[in-house]
User: Fold these one by one.
Assistant:
Number 1:
Amino acid sequence: MQTTNRRILLSAAVATLAVTATAVAWAQSPAKPAPLTAEACLGCHGPAAKGQDGVPGIRGYDKAEFVKVWGQFRANERPATIMNRIARGYTDEEVAALADYFSSLK
Amino acid sequence: MTRLSRRTFVRLAGGTVAGLIAAPAVVTAQARPRILVVGGGFGGASAARFAATRYQGLDVTLVEPQARFITCPYGNVLLSGRRTLDQITHGYENVAKAGVTVVQDWVDGIDAAGKTVRLRGGRTLGYDKLILSPGIALRWNAIEGYDEAASAIFPHAWMGGDGSQITLLRRQLEAMPDGGVVGIAIPANPFRCPPGPYERISMIAAYLKRSKPKSKILALDAKDSFSKQGLFQDGWKELYGDMIEWVPLGKDGKVVRVDAKEKVFETEFGKKIKVDVGNVIPPQSAARIAIDSGLTNDSGWVEVKSSTFESAKAEHIHVIGDANIGAPMPKSGYIANSTSKQAVAAAMASLRGEPVPASPVYFNTCYSHVGDDYGISIVGVFRPAEKGFVETPNSGGVSPRGPLAEQANQRKLEAQYADAWYASITKDAFG
């Protein structure tokens, strides 16, 4: 009996919390979260975007410069191994969000 | 019920608890959403670490049967002698340090309706969202005569496991006399790591060229074309002369039967080929747990919703990594890593009653080593389509072709960046 009641109660608790968007129990971490798009960059540029074995760091990259360099990759106006192929896959809005995020990292 | 404010809820819950079971601590603990991740490869480890580090107040549990993970990426490089098993083995210590409860056990069953999983060790774990990243199963006897026992003679070396398969293949190559024939049977699509068999051919050739230059590699393929084909074939010619013979499906390349004791491959049209070392990469499916849980369709793989990776057949179960139907995305570690984050974010949005994170981008780069200082790559930027996935037009693709004299710097840099990728992606997944 006790177990059953507890299960019902717990289900109710979970259901309630799930729709209470302001619940603090699992608030997002306070630091500015990376846009999900930026997560993919870390697979080569290192988990902290500090660079890895010759792959340049992009942490703290100047925002305007980031957008400019991205455009050069996209247009094949800058020497590249794979960034030119990558750059063509992202929209201007996505690039702006990446520039905003990586430039914000200290 | 859904309109209750949090304060009202706390009061109600407190009253109920005090009246009925007098154990408010239990409610507090259980009110934390439970993200359960099953499978500790690139997809699962990435999902678990991402969930635990990006969100607060979650209970994140990772269930994985093995104490350590041996990656498939760079397993081929071990064959060439440039890496050791230790260098491709990753523990879960840093996953645990990120706040994930790591449970070493097998999942024997999933109760989708009850939202629990049953562990072989006897425990049952509940979840609010299940991230299932179980990997693949080998379809034993899909090639007649190729079962688990045969893999002790003809290794597949296509799952990291405990490392014994890739080690066995390496030992067999070391024991082979100069002038021997290495046979490699390659499956039709889809399978784990599309460029993998061809990188393997390359890395075996690199070893043979150094140590047993009179030897041959005979690659028998169940398809007529493959990933980065032009680049691989250019590289083979440039680096290994005529050591490698690749036989496509159209030229009777499909191996349908093997006799491990006699060391014979047999093709569709009955050609019998004696090999000294045989590497059989068999046809594959999603891992057993996905099949047994009724998540797969007739193809043997799991259909998922393209913005959430939630199973088409079961709510609250997000299936990531090689087990799902992700074409044209490849079954790769990078895709498992990249998609794991959208899956977790979508699961969290659902728990919070928020919309799914919009316009996700799924990213892949697969590097392959063709020889020393000789790397090539394929890039893919993917997005959800109305049904399934689509590659972003006019983007991605493979490294430029061209004679080595002109491309030497590109090949060298890509080999270096491949090493950087391995270091970065394994840090992102395993910490």
Note: Chain B touches chain A through 65 residues (CB under 8 Å).
Number 2:
Amino acid sequence: MATDRRSDGRLLDTLPWTLGALGLALVPHVGALPLWIVLLAILCGVWRWIVERRRTRLPWRGLRFGLAFGGFLAVIFTYGGINGVGPGTALLVIMASLKLLETRTRRDQFVLMFIAVFLVLAALLREPAPWTLPYLFAALFAIVAAWLNAGRGGNALPPMLAARSAGRLLAQALPLMLVFWILFPRVPGPFWAIPTEQGGAVTGLSDRMSPGDITRLGRSNALAFRVWFDDDPPPPARRYWRGIVMDRVIDGRTWAARPLRYEMLGRDPVEPRGEPVRYRIRLAPTNQRYLFMLERVADWSAPGTFVTSRLEVASTAPVDDWLTYEARSYPEARADLRLSDEARSDYTALPENANPRTREYARRLRTGSGDERDYIRRVLAYYRQNSFSYTLTPSRLGRDAVDEFLFTSRAGFCEHYATSFATLMRAAGIPARVVAGYQGGELNPIDPDEAYYIVRQSDAHAWTEVWLDGEGWRRVDPTAAVAPDRIRSGLYDAVEETEFGVADRLLRSSTMETLRFYWDLTNARWDEWVLGYGPATQRDFLRWLGMDEPGWRRMLVWLTALLAVLLAALSGWLAWRHRRPRADRAARLYRRFTEATGLQRAAGEPPLDYAERAADALPAAAGEIRRITALYLDSRYAGMGREDELAAAVRGFAVKYPVLRLRRRGTTGRRPRGRAGSARR
Amino acid sequence: MSSTPSLSPERTPPVWRRAGALIAGRAARWARRRQGVDPVPVELASRRIYILPTGVGITYALMVFAMLLGSMNYNNSMAFALTFLLAALGLVAMHHCQRNVAGLIVAFTGAEPVFAGDPVRLRFALHNEGVAPRFDILVYVGESASSRVDVPSGGHALCVASLPTTRRGRLRLTRYGVRSTHPLTLFRAWAWIHADVSCLVWPRPAQEAPPLPFSAPSHGRRRTAAAGDDDFAGLRDFQDGDPPRHLAWKTYARSGELKTKRFSGTDARLAWLDIRDAQGSDLEERLSVVCRWVLDAERAGLRYGLRLGRTIIQPSRGNAHRARCLDALAEFEGGRTGGH
């Protein structure tokens, strides 16, 4: 049989279901998979369908092995390995495609459905966004319908019946799933290493910065983090979300951060001073180790994090999942009132051979100024008075980028201003460093009880910090000197509107704005209550539901009890669904009549025969017996609607012959059908 | 199916399978003692439905378990959602599977006798009195199962299970089952039905048999001429059992009346088929020879009678007579005649 590859058309009615289910499971992967895998899947699906349709042969086994081997190698080549969701999905799709080409029997389709289930799992693991919930149900619906048909002995179920059955199974599974989901005890994982994603680059800030890096983020609407303030939010000009400090000048254009090291043992990051700002941040995965917080953070709640001497907060491992932390910042606190000579020389170092014009200009300006503060004022005035522009489309800069920017192009984005300003400071001997982070954020006002700020990648910003005697580190944002709107109300108001595409402009129209806020709120709730439903959230939620001390034992007890209740309800529903139809009214009345006569009617005995038998046995009532039987036949079989007459006649009969009724108790037995119970010994 | 003349093991099954069969046999006898013979037809009460996962179901459970471990490791809420939805589907399917079989009304409706070696076709009727249809149900006897049928609400479906036969005799059907894996093939629900019915298996007709023995003179009938002088001797009315090649088709086409051609000697020829005349190493072989004679005599249009020790069937002809003779052969207990 192995050599017989000819299709016999047996799968003609179930294959469309299987192909449909596989296709639906594949949909969210299409954008993420290499094009050749998607094409392979489509090709194999169409091929298999044509084979079934035309009853031609399935491809030769050697070809299938060749394709499998080639596909495996190609996946390794494309992804550089087979670990992780990406290559795993690719392999699943290749498996499904080739399995299709050797699917001969109904039962082979089960294998395909198992693969489809894993494809759904892969989609959920890759991108657990709110749309995956409808996707989950749609895909499972298609899979269950195909599964139903794959298990059929005869023809496939008619499409509507298959769809109804699948929908019913899913609908009945839904409450059980909810109970499982809410009550199954969540434990803090992981138990074993999660394969790290290769090539899973995330849009965001990095620890190196050249002109143009942040400009690229300016057009990204991707979410960086959400912020909930405990009290009144600070004004926009104070919302500097500090992340990465870059104090190493690599060359004329690039600044970089120092390697992250824990350096502040036994010392609080800052001395509290003034009023604190309390807030909670939910950070999207960055695959970097930096956390973003308001300046001068004093304490925060994130396990596995530390603070560096530059007051960066970093995690010991890359943040590859959503991270929530609460923090407290003291904007008025001071940092590093003293600076060692070593640090001072580090913070004023510049490469010897880069940006000569800038250094020359700084030396001249410094000698013409009073103290350091006066010099800073003059530098900022230089930006203001020389028609610098703030733009998302700066011209490309060469090796001496700062020279070109300050004296030629004079158009740039925040990183141009920050690096040029820091260079001017260092050239004048003032300790300075560049800080990368986010600035501002947009209020989502939809739910006034839980208003929060949305900080996007387009809010990415770079600014500088200079060290002043008696003051410590002070933030100076040269961008504010050129484009104060950027700081006050965000990037969109600060650059020319024409710099954004039509889609971006449309997104900011007022209707779309509202929709966008609703969507973000949905995402926020989803992140918090669905994706964030871990051990802590589960305990809180169950406590809110009224369970005291929700430990795993109690959860399991409740889980079992609720499952038992739901399954009992399901069982009851099924019994009701398979119930016997309620007998016709005429039939019920006639049965009452036969009980009243005390003469049992044999199974299947025609009513007229019974009437004659009864008339013989009870001659006194012969007239009534015949009349009632005639009424019964008229109502039951002739459709003459004489049930009311019949009812009256039967009632009259029962009243008129009470003696017979008395006899009835002794004579009528149980219904003659052989139930299993009656056969027991 | 426990029957004296049924399945002969052609290859020795593995030990675990034999052990399983032994346990199953014990369980079957215990269930029969406990339950007794079921009435015909029998309604399958839900408490007598057994249910276990199928191979697909076990694979499914392993998949769900692996997904649960993965979800716990990644602490991924959506993976949990998928895992729990699959687990819930399995539980729901289990209940559907059980209810699909429970409440079904089943009856054995008979089987035509067959020659030993031919499969016997056991017929069963399934009746669904409920308002919901039932799907993919089959009847099985031992290893043999009928094809799967759907039973509409308030309707019937017929199932035929073919059972191989090896020896003649009375084939007793003591137990059969009804099962289904609807809806998701994750579970198999089944019920055993204890029956006390039987059907006959005729002896296998011998391939080569000596020519038909003809009646002994003691019966006072004239021995007719040898075969071959079938001279046409006119027409008579058709009788049930007349061989088709003796029918006067031309007359039928002309007049619409079915007539049988008479040949000289046809009515007069009579054969007494006696087990003692049959050659064979044992009783079964001799019965096979007699069986062949019965078929040959019937085909040749002879009148024939049967002598099996004390059982004597008077000469006659026709399908009913033939069946009576074959039944007698099937049930003949050779030992009492001292034939060996």
Note: Confidence is low (pLDDT under 50) at residues 661-681 of chain A.
